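Minutes, project huddle
Topic: does the predicted pose make sense with zinc ion bound?
PN asked that the exact inputs be recorded in the minutes so nobody has to dig through chat later. Recorded below.
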Amino acid sequence: MSEEEITQQMKRLLYLIAEYSKLDGKYGVLSIKELPVKTLIFKGIRDNIFDYDYAPQSLMYIDNRRYLNVSQEGVDDLEDLRELGYIQKIRLATKRHNYIYSYSLTPEGIQYLQSIPIDDKNAIDQFINCTCGNLYDIVVLPEDVVLTCDKCNIKINTEITEIEDVKYKSAPAALKTRLTVERGVENQ
Ligand SMILES: [Zn+2]
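Predicted holo structure (tokens), as shared on screen:
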């Protein structure tokens, strides 16, 4: 992948991670964990910031596995940004000796921010900032991942834990079809 292939969505994603990596106006200082990133991607799809698909995926959530609305296309774009050298993926050990990842910008990624159109930056700014100007905190609660602004006492459910009935019901059917195909039953 070369720089010319960076899509609008990748630019938005890079800028989103950049904003969460900022401390005292400096990019690339902090990092954002993978669940908050996946949550923002999902919420961004719902808010028409990103144009990705999503589907239920079983992930570690607090201490249990749970189905969450995850965009594999979004995750693939994160991986492409990493391969381009614009974001770094940091491995962190949890208390239970599992590993999770956290994302931040590289100096090359920070440099590239200048090439991102102002309209895309504005779209992300509106999405991740409260009307008071504070960046939303992303908080993982037992029932949902929420965006919060302590100053305004705002809490927004992202619904990443709310698996839609239609999609959930269609999953076993799709699996059955694939197994059927693998067994070559469709030729009989
Ligand atoms: Zn606020």
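Observations noted during the meeting:
- The longest helix spans residues 165-182.
- Helices lie at 8-20, 34-46, 72-83, 107-112, 118-128, 165-182.
No decisions taken; revisit at the next huddle.
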